[in-house]
Amino acid sequence: MTISELRKKFISGEYTPMEAVAEAKAVISEKDGDIHAYLDVYDDAEEMAKEATARYQKEGGNTPPLCGVPLAIKNNILIAGKRATGASKILDNYIASYDATVIKRLRDAGAIFIGSTNMDEFAMGSSTENSAYGPTRNPIDQSRVPGGSSGGSAAAVAMSSVPAALGTDTGGSIRQPASYCGLVGLKPTYGAVSRYGLMAMGSSLDQAGTLTNSVEDAETLFNVIAGRDPHDMTTISGETYGVAPTKDTYTFGVPRAFLGQGVDADVMERFESHLDELRAAGHRIVDIELPLFEAGLAAYYIVMPAEVSSNLARFDGIRYGVRKEGKDLLETYLNSRADGFGAEAKRRILLGTYVLSSGYFDAYYGKAEALRGKMRDELNAAFAQVDLVVTPTAPTPAFKLGEKSDPLSMYRQDIFTVPVNLTGVPALSIPMGEVERDGVSLPTGVQYIAPHGGEARLFDIGRKVYDAKRYNNG
Amino acid sequence: MTKEEILHLGTLSRIRLSDAEALKLKGEIDAILEYVSEVNKLVPDGHLEKKVGLVHNVFREDKVVNEPDSYSDVLQAAFPEREGDYLKVKKILNPDS
After folding, report:
1. Which segments of A36-111 does DSSP mark as H helices, in order?
2. Across the interface, which of B9, B16, B87 has its CB nearest the CB of A354?
3. pLDDT score for A197
């Protein structure tokens, strides 16, 4: 079910928000014991659904665009009065004191929040195995991960409990789970969507975005959540970067050398067939060089932990969250943070503290930031020749729980997604076809990358390539 | 990196680490640092040009926009320990340490 299909039925009266919420709750009771997509399920959703149902009876199609639409929200996004844990023990008891801007905008558009979704602790991970509340399983194959860090949001949509969910994407945390769960995932331009009320991970990389069943729904949600916000100084307006125009046919750039890096052979075959489909639809495919993108992952694992170590300094058990008392203030910090953070959070905080320490700052952080600037120039030069860059979203389909115990092998899942965050451009992942593992068909994803502010172009090509196919197949 | 250096990073980061944790982290952090050193090959020394992009911090006027006390109750409710309207914390100086 998509948001647009739900909306039509709500307007015609064939189906009501009350029925939709009841069905969402029924799916959660039936499936979530196994999948564990949700951390909390909200009991005020029925009340909101009742109001929305009454509104449709009175106002019909004049209701706001998401009226009565049930959504799931990643648990690093604050909803006033609800628990916001970031899937960390250190915030186990934390109740959000205000609405994030994205939540306020969804609320104003009539959306209903069904519950909060599981994630890697503070959005650090690519599998949702780093949650303090236990892992989420992929609804398509429960022996496999749903991807991460927005794995709970992806699983919530993939198990058909909600038509869409919000996630956050710092290095691929929306696009990679979308790819693993057969969904559409959007990472907007840095600054397009307010970060106010999101738990900061890598402040120069973080963006909130959407996990949906169609590109049309991604666009509907994006139009609601995007826009300037006085509470987030980095938000941009529609004019900041100018408009990347839509066209009848596009030129796609394929960074061939970059794709040589550890992509499964059958994923690469799906990718080549996808390029053939694009050619058949009249688009042009050309090879491009993005040599610095190959070093993107290395730069990312300097910049991101540096920002993590600063951002996570606020969790100290003093003003909110879980406090473990010591004999003095220092010991209280040491105890609260030792107990409150999981292994991956500790690893990245330490790494970030190291690369920012005097004597190492220039060698690591300074160089990574310089490289980032060069990557941006390299990508802008590519966009002078092509309209979009295309890569697989992830090098493999969903892997098994516990399969990637070595941190670096987990990090390599994000090789194609992190350059997008480092350069701040928008990208869309759509399903690219299936590959077989142990007798199970698993989805893969293709990533379209647009210039800064180029969301309209992503929605246009995404609708042409994916929505058209989706609706034709019923 | 030595185990002692990892333990020192732990103290700087305000995270107490056990010896076993420090040993495990030592191997992992060494491997990650070796991997990320790749950036050194691509950016020569002394080329650390800092650019401010189109997106940069813009500060709003420094004035109070909320009604006084409008968030006090909800913020105080989140205090791990309180006494009246005060947030209670441990003393900073400890004569024993």
Report:
1. 45-59, 101-108
2. B9
3. 98
Q: Identify the burial level of A19 via C-beta atoms within 10 angstroms of its C-beta, where 0-12 means exposed, 13-18 middle and 19 or more buried.
A: middle
Chain A residues whose CB is inside 8 A of the B36 CB are 298-299, 301-302, 355, 364, 368
Q: pLDDT tens, A92-118?
A: 999 999 999 999 999 999 999 999 999
What separation in angstroms does the CA of A101 have from each of A85, A105, A195?
18, 6, 7
**What pLDDT score does B41 carry?**
85
| pLDDT of the residue at B93 | 78
Q: Which of B7, B14, B87, B89 to mutate to test the interface with A (most CBs of A within 10 A)?
A: B14
Could you report the predicted ipTM of this complex, rounded to two decimals? Answer: 0.91
Residues A295-330: pLDDT tens digits?
Answer: 999 999 999 999 999 999 999 999 999 999 999 999
Q: Mark out the alpha helices in A38-142 (DSSP H runs).
A: 45-59, 101-108
Tell me how far apart the alpha carbons of residues A398 and A444 are, in angstroms, rounded to a whole number. Answer: 8
Q: Which CATH superfamily is domain A1-474 in?
A: Amidase signature (AS) domain (3.90.1300.10)
A-chain residues near B7 (CB < 8 A):
none
Please report which helix (H) or strand (E) contains residue A338, including its range: helix A329-340
Q: What pLDDT, on the 0 to 100 scale, is given for residue B96?
A: 65
- Tell me which of A74, A82, A89, A187 is the catalytic residue: A74
Looking only at the bridges linking them, the beta strands covering A440-449 and A427-437 are antiparallel
What token pair was written down for A86?
């970031």
- Can you tell me the distance from the alpha carbon of A150 to that of A148, in angstroms, rounded to the nearest whole number? 5
Please give the torsion angle defined by the CA atoms of residues A92, A98, A101 and A106, in that order, rounded to the nearest 10 degrees.
80
Bridge partners (DSSP) of residue A41 are A115
**Residue A346 annotated in active site:** no
Task: Answer for the pair A175, A427: CB distance below 8 angstroms, yes or no.
Answer: yes
B39 to A302: CB separation less than 8 angstroms, yes or no? yes
State the alpha helices, DSSP H only, in A71-136.
101-108
Specify which residues A185 forms β-bridges with.
A211, A429
Q: Mean pLDDT, to the nearest integer, of B64-82?
A: 90
User: What is the dotted CATH code of the domain comprising B1-44?
Assistant: 1.10.20
Ordered by start, the domain boundaries in chain A are 1-474
Dihedral sign for Cα atoms in the order A22, A84, A108, A51: positive
A149 is catalytic: yes
* Dist. CA A45–CA A41, nearest whole Å: 9
Query: Which residue has tokens 């900073």?
Result: B92
User: Measured between beta carbons, which residues in chain B are less than 8 angstroms from residue A191?
Assistant: 55
pLDDT of residue B51: 62
- Mean of all residue pLDDT scores within chain A: 96
Pure H helices in A171-264 = 175-181, 215-225, 256-259
pLDDT surpassing 70 at residue A474 = no
- How confident is residue B90, by pLDDT bands cut at 50, 70 and 90? confident
